[in-house]
């Protein structure tokens, strides 16, 4: 494969953004639907997301090369720049997570209108943080990124799965009353992600012409092929889904770890593999 311009900082930034955005969006939605009874779950999500979002800020600064470039992105009004939107959404997600973390209302009290708006905004900014990176890729000329419109959907579904996985791991140290509820939506989320990835492969193979063929060819690369078929599909989707049906497949504590590994591999495949295809 040819050299890549985007290195580890970018695929790690995409992964961390997916985990943090997915965890906050899932927990905020559950809390909205339960009128504040899921506050412990949302608090756990913000405890997970806030440090990860700060790491994302550091990764973005590293990729830009100089700290003043990040400052310029934050201070300048450039709504036509995808990087500006990414920085804005990241900063908004950090601020929103901080506000949610330090809410002081008592458990068992229904949500006020301000709290409802905070949760709606948290879902909006978290979803934007997850999806904007895929939209940025889809608007490029690389076949793996632009030959199918499904990359944003895959990123969104992967973020839901990884957000649930991160909450499941966090619940081992900070128990919440919603672990079973998360487990019930985990299998449909995994199956839907698996289905959309299958549709993407079919689209690339039969409906995307030469660009799709070039994108499929990336999966024949030894490294990218192993990452995709073994880690994204096998470790990240098939094994966890099987474990939810057959409890003896793997220990339950391993399942969220496998999902996170698969999600990380997905970002590596998309970012590194996408750069391995020639410009269309």
Describe the structure in your own words.
The protein has 280 residues and is mainly alpha-helical. The chain has helices spanning 8-33, 39-64, 67-75, 82-101, 113-138, 143-146, 151-170, 179-206, 209-218, 222-245, 255-275. Helix 1 packs antiparallel against helix 2 (39-64), helix 2 (39-64) crosses helix 7 (151-170) and helix 7 packs antiparallel against helix 8 (179-206). The longest helix has 28 residues, at 179-206. It is globular, with a radius of gyration of 19 Å. The protein starts with 7 loop residues before the first helix and ends in a 5-residue tail after the last helix. The relative contact order is 0.15. The model has no long low-confidence stretch (mean pLDDT 83).
């Amino acid at each position: 494969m040819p050299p890549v311009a985007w290195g580890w900082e970018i695929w790690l930034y995409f992964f961390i953004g997916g985990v943090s955005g997915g965890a906050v969006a899932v927990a905020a939605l559950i809390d909205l639907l339960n009128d504040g009874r899921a506050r412990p779950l949302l608090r756990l999500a913000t405890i997970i997301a806030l440090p990860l979002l700060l790491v994302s800020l550091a990764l973005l600064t590293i990729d830009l090369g100089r700290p003043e470039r990040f400052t310029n992105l934050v201070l300048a009004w450039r709504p036509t720049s995808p990087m500006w939107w990414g920085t804005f959404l990241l900063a908004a997600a950090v601020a929103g997570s901080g506000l949610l973390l330090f809410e002081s209302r008592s458990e068992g009290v229904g949500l006020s209108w301000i709290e409802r708006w905070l949760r709606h905004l948290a879902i909006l900014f978290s979803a934007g943080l997850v999806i904007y990176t895929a939209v940025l890729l889809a608007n490029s000329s690389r076949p793996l990124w632009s030959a199918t419109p499904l990359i944003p959907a895959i990123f969104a579904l992967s973020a839901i799965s990884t957000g649930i996985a991160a909450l499941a791991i966090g619940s081992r140290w900070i128990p919440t009353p919603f672990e079973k509820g998360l487990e019930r939506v985990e299998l449909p989320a995994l199956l839907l992600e698996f289905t959309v990835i299958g549709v993407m492969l079919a689209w690339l193979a039969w409906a995307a012409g030469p660009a799709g063929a070039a994108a499929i060819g990336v999966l024949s690369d030894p490294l990218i092929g192993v990452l995709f078929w073994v880690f994204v599909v096998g470790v990240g989707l098939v094994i966890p889904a099987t474990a939810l049906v057959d409890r003896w497949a793997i220990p339950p504590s391993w399942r969220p770890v496998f999902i996170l590994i698969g999600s990380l591999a997905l970002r590596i495949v998309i970012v590194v593999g996408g750069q391995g295809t020639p410009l269309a």
